Amino acid sequence: MTRRITWTLLVLTSVLLVLAVVPLAVSLTARERVAYRDSQRAATRVIAAAAEEHLSDNKPPTAMRQELGAAARAGDCAAVYDTSGRVVASTSCTAAQGEEAEELVKDVLAGHEPEPPENEGRLVAAEPAGEVRRPAGAVVLARSAGPLDARIAAIWGWSAAIGVAGLAASALLSVRLARWVSRPLSTLDVSARRLGEGALDERADVGAGPPEVRRLAATFNTMAARMEALVHGHRAVIADVSHQLRTPLAALRLRLDVLAAEAGGDTAAEFAAAQEEIARLSRLVDGLLAVARAEQAAPRPTAVRVDEVVAERAAAWSPVAEERDVRLTVVSEGPALTVALGAGHLEQVLDNLIANAVDAVPEGGSITLDRGRAGDAVRVFVRDDGPGMTDEAKAVAFRRFGNPQARGAGLGLAIVHRLVTVNGGTARLEDTPGGGLTVVLDLPLWREGGPEPAGRGDLYRF
Q1: What is the CATH number of domain 2-150?
Q2: Which of 2, 120, 202, 352: CA 20 to 30 A from 247?
Q3: 200 pLDDT exceeds 70?
């Protein structure tokens, strides 16, 4: 943002300076040329007035020669011509004589006003001596254009200096303005990112930047404070539920165990059924707590090697699969891929998916874990050849208790969906070719320069 604001202001200032300074310099140059020409013509008329007294009134040429001497001392070349075009008097230099001067004299003696030419750094002017229609002669004065060129160069030099100074001042002010605007926004962006990563005590600076940015930072702080209060309240509720429900359930299970040990016949069977329901209720409570923890998770992405985690979880679940006569295999082909996930999240996702697949697949069935590259994501597959799901069941499977046909608490896929989506990935269900269910996970690819890998978190399986 700082660069965009700076370049925008610099371009705007440059355009304004060009539109203001260049026309001004052109105008000053034109005025300087006119003033220089007027000065040259005035000097020529002075000599012409003195020459008229000599040519028409037959007075001594003293005044005329004095004016020619003054012109010579000023660095000009001048020559006085009579009505026949003959040089009557001149300065020591001959720049006011020659073919060009003779052409000007002819125009003047004919009663015309000649266009003064500019050749080889000289400005030549011609004026009649006496009346314009009946001149007694003509005066030609040649003046060097060097002083005029120096003044014009000075005008453009000062104009360029003013433009550069204005551009430098604009660059300095634009950089300061851009930083004044962008730094609070950058700080606010960092605070928002840290808040999204789980730093609930993060607050933005409200004392810098424009009033609009300060109000935005204050609004962000209010939102962050309310979010922190809500999350802490949610965590407190989870802790209370965990304590208030697990303790009486454990006590009830112990009492049923004692009563079941002393009972016999139909009573023992009833106690066994009650114990099974208590165990199911305990799993349900643990599942709800796990979903709640997953929903309030705000992970900080870490580098996770997919092939290593897949191999590790497959090895951990192999004894369970062998006990139920289920073949658990891992497709090990392909390059090593790294994803950006919260610490321990991929393990939790795979544990839930493998646990669901092991429960669903009949004896002699198989479960296959695979992964591959899909654009900017890493795609992980968990395939089984179990009974699969209907389209209606797949549409609601990621919701809490969405699948009424689930054998367990029906919360495993809800936890998987929450952990995958909170990390910026997607999860979907497909039919396995030949029968069964395939869970497809698209996980964000790890980029170089990201956060350092962190340790793994707690695992929850339901």
Answers
A1: 3.30.450.20
A2: 352
A3: yes
Q: What CATH homologous superfamily does 300-444 map to? A: Histidine kinase-like ATPase, C-terminal domain (3.30.565.10)
Q: What is the average pLDDT value for the chain, to the nearest integer?
A: 81
Q: What digits encode the pLDDT tens for the residues 219-256?
A: 988 888 888 787 777 666 766 666 667 777 777 878 77
Architecture of domain 211-293 in this structure: Orthogonal Bundle (1.10)
Domain borders along the chain are 2-150, 211-293, 300-444
Query: What mean pLDDT is predicted for residues 87-105?
Result: 84
pLDDT at residue 440 above 90?
yes
Q: Per-residue pLDDT for 15 more than 60? A: yes
Which position has the higher pLDDT, 61 or 6? 61
Q: Record the tokens describing residue 410, joined without a space.
A: 């029906």
Q: Torsion-angle region of residue 408: left (phi > 0), alpha (psi -120 to 50) or beta? A: beta
